[in-house]
Amino acid sequence: MTDPACDFYCGRILSGRLSVPVYCENDRVFAFHHTNPLWEHHVVLLPKKHVESLITLDEADNELLLELMRTAKAIAGDFMARFGAARVYTNLGAYQSSKHLHWHIGAGAQLRPY
């Protein structure tokens, strides 16, 4: 398991060391506009609690997962209303560049390769 202090989201974003444009936030989740977006509209959603990935969630994290899904649904709904389409996904294993559970929510044209 990754040391929470060492992952990008805990160490830089959630600690406030790196300022990012906030999309929404509550006591359990944080969503921000990606600073190097893959699409025209790109939000990253993450739990404030360190969780390595979707498959490392415990039964005790069920309420957190529901909060993440409620927030992802709201952001995707906003994107659908404004842009007519949305994509929502998370990566695992070698595809996951930061070992902190996070969801990408995007819309619009792709700005750079994956």
Can you walk me through this structure?
The chain has 114 residues and is an alpha+beta fold. The chain has a single domain (8-110), classed as HIT family, subunit A (2-Layer Sandwich), CATH 3.30.428.10. Helix content is 25%, strand content 25%. The protein contains two helices and five strands. The protein has helices at 8-14, 62-83, and strands at 22-25, 29-33, 39-47, 87-89, 103-110. It has a five-stranded antiparallel beta sheet, covered by helices on one side. Strand 2 (29-33) and strand 3 form a beta hairpin. The longest helix has 22 residues, at 62-83. The radius of gyration is 14 Å and the shape is globular. The two termini are 25 Å apart. The model has no long low-confidence stretch (mean pLDDT 94).
Could you provide a short overview of the structure?
The chain has 114 residues and is an alpha+beta fold.
End-to-end separation in angstroms reads: 25 Å
Total beta strand runs: 5
Please identify the top-level CATH class: Alpha Beta
- The mean pLDDT is 94
The major sheet is characterized as: 5 strands, antiparallel
Radius of gyration equals: 14 Å
List keywords for this structure.
five-stranded antiparallel beta sheet; HIT family, subunit A; alpha+beta; globular; 114 residues; 5 strands; 2 helices
What topology does this entry show?
Blueprint: H1 8-14, E1 22-25, E2 29-33, E3 39-47, H2 62-83, E4 87-89, E5 103-110
Antiparallel strand pairs: 1-2, 2-3, 3-5, 4-5
